[in-house]
Amino acid sequence: MADTQFNNVMKDIYIIGCGGFAKEVYALIKLIGGYRVKGFINHEKADGLIFKTEVIPVIEEIDFFKLDSQNVYLAIGVGNPKLIHEFSLKFKEFDFPNLIHPNVTGDFDNIILGKGNIFTSNVTLTIDIKIGNFNVFNLLTTVGHDVVIGNCNVINPSVNISGGVSIGDRNLIGVGSTILQYKTIGSDSIIGASSLVLKNVPNSVTVVGVPAKKMSDN
């Protein structure tokens, strides 16, 4: 979790997006400390976001790229895996720190992390876990031993990922779902809320239910 600390020097950071999850990322950044939120980045003009103590400007994307952006950090504040992937490519020249809530627990000496991951409150990780880039771990998610997770996945609140699970890229995993041990989730798939995954999930499908069954192709 070292990249949430910058030797007590405040770093400027912008949040991509200006919806509800972007506000949650703002609150997480304020809690972590070490960053100065300079604004939200949106694809079009929008009013600033009003918080209790301040108004944070919303900057149009085209105007952001005109700024002097040296030593600026970014965070992606959207909950759509495909949009996260698009933004990760569009802003690939920038630095994206991992943002980790102080009460997240895990054996981080034995967890490999990429960049731009967001861990919200009460996430629990165990040991020997490999995590790529730009994943979102929402409230109360648990991740077991020897799990491998790719890039740009959105894991919604209270998801339980058992040991030995492998997850690809750009998946949306619904609230309260459970993936049993040593199952494989492909890429670009959706696991419905409260689903129980007993079998491998291929690429580009939606599965729902207890047990989870294919409902459609994506």
Question: Explain this structure to me?
Answer:
There is one protein chain. The protein has helices spanning 20-32, 61-64, 81-90, and strands at residues 11-16, 35-42, 49-50, 55-56, 58-60, 72-76, 99-100, 111-113, 118-119, 124-125, 129-131, 136-137, 142-143, 148-149, 154-155, 160-161, 166-167, 172-173, 178-179, 184-185, 190-191, 196-197, 205-208, 213-217. With 218 residues, it is mainly beta. Strands 7-9-12-15-18-21-23-24 form an 8-stranded mixed beta sheet, covered by helices on one side. The protein starts with 10 loop residues before the first strand and ends with a strand.
Key words describing this protein structure:
218 residues; mainly beta; eight-stranded mixed beta sheet; five-stranded parallel beta sheet; 3 helices; 32% strand; globular; disordered N terminus
- The N- and C-terminal alpha carbons lie at a distance of 35 Å
Number of strands: 24
Helix-residue proportion: 10-25%
> What is the percentage of strand-forming residues?
25-35%
The backbone outline, from C-alpha atoms, is globular
- The H-and-E topology, N to C, reads as EHEEEEHEHEEEEEEEEEEEEEEEEEE
- Strand sequence of the main sheet, in spatial order? 7-9-12-15-18-21-23-24
Supply the number of helical segments: 3
Which structural category fits the helices and strands? mainly beta
Query: What Rg do the Cα atoms give?
Result: 17 Å
Task: Lay out the secondary structure.
Elements: E1 11-16, H1 20-32, E2 35-42, E3 49-50, E4 55-56, E5 58-60, H2 61-64, E6 72-76, H3 81-90, E7 99-100, E8 111-113, E9 118-119, E10 124-125, E11 129-131, E12 136-137, E13 142-143, E14 148-149, E15 154-155, E16 160-161, E17 166-167, E18 172-173, E19 178-179, E20 184-185, E21 190-191, E22 196-197, E23 205-208, E24 213-217
Parallel strand pairs: 1-2, 1-6, 2-5, 7-9, 8-11, 9-12, 10-13, 11-14, 12-15, 13-16, 14-17, 15-18, 16-19, 17-20, 18-21, 19-22, 21-23
Antiparallel strand pairs: 3-4, 23-24
